[in-house]
Amino acid sequence: MINDAGTTRDVLRAHAEKTEQNERPAPESLEAMREAGDFALRTPREHGGTGAGAEAVARRLTALGQACPSSAWVAGTCATGKSLAAAAFPGSEELFADPDAVFCGSGVPGARGVRDADGVRVTGRWPNVSGCEDASWASLAVVVDGTFCFAVIPVADLTVDRTWQMAGMRGTGSHTLVAEDLPVPASRVVAAAPFGLNDLMLYSMTVLAPVIGGARGALDATYAVFASDRKPFMSAYTSMGESPGARHWLAEAAHLVDRAEATMLSVARESDARALSEADGARLRMALADAGRDARTAVDRLLDLSGAGGFRTANVLQRFWRDVSVGSRHPHLNPYLAVERYGSALADA
């Protein structure tokens, strides 16, 4: 059961700076999300989880991202990792014994596996594995004898190479996992089919929702500025709200955030409702890329309103700006490839 989002948001917001400084979610944030059921979003229902669909995942991660996009991102990565594990190893009691365990993972085949009498020996590196320092299990793509496979490996058996050095989403701890001739039981390595479009839409929600949540967090911070006695510098106005230009900029930003969230939820509902075709996939990827750009543009508008002061390291607005700027450029939200694919689909129709 997912607890009240407001309570969890309060904890994440209170520890967001600590999360960024430590380059991983603060222990208090992890515990709050665990107690709220956020790491059980995609744990199968038969194992005590939520089994949430794309829309439920999107709504929850947006709510968390409103306080701390990095923490929401780690919860989203957990949802993806558990989805991969559940698809590859349905009914596994071992993997889902703790429905609230944190998973991480990578769908990029960064390693090679060689079969032996006891299973598979795995060697390789998987970069950008969000939440890996706090995860119990990693769902990882591996090429075994030329076949694309997934392996689920205890993170304790892997080495974390702390390579995550980014301007934004610092608190995701998206470091590199390393395996060196690691023995993995054959029961935890399985050949995998290509991702289906419905699965890809779900995985896109785990990326886009924290970004839109971050844009909402930036909007909240700007509402507080409008409610304060701050006035536009070098003007005769006595408050931000007196300025027609400032009100116009605020309205534009709020509209862009609302539009981004509405677009995301529309895609999620469509994905939950039916099997998607290739034509659907091209159209929906375009919509998701647009939603990411709307969120990013909205935060830029809000920084315009705050001026240079919005970039003070003590100002929460600059953290949201950095997180949204980095997160909205994830490959799932790549705008030029989305345009390319949509144009090809339209031309071939």
Keywords:
seven-stranded mixed β-sheet, 349 residues, 10 helices, 50% helix, alpha+beta
Structural summary, described in words:
There is one protein chain. The protein has 349 residues and is of the alpha+beta class. Helices cover 50% and strands 17% of the residues. The chain has 10 helices and 7 strands. The protein has helices spanning 5-14, 16-22, 27-36, 54-65, 69-88, 197-227, 244-273, 278-306, 316-327, 335-348; strands at 103-116, 119-129, 137-144, 147-154, 159-161, 175-185, 189-191. It has a 7-stranded mixed sheet with strand order 5-6-2-1-3-4-7. Helix 4 runs parallel beside helix 6, helix 5 (69-88) packs antiparallel against helix 6 (197-227) and helix 7 (244-273) packs antiparallel against helix 8 (278-306). The model has no long low-confidence stretch (mean pLDDT 95).
Would you kindly provide a brief summary of this structure?
By secondary structure, the chain is of the alpha+beta class. It contains ten helices and seven strands.
The largest β sheet comes out as: 7 strands, mixed
* Strand and helix order: HHHHHEEEEEEEHHHHH
Number of extended strands: 7
What would you call the structural class?
Answer: alpha+beta
Shape: globular
Number of helices: 10
Low-confidence stretches are none
Helicity, as a percent range: 40-55%
Mean pLDDT over the full residue set: 95
In angstroms, what separates the terminal alpha carbons?
44 Å
Note the beta-strand portion: 15-25%
- Main sheet: strand order: 5-6-2-1-3-4-7
User: What oligomeric assembly is this protein in?
Assistant: single chain
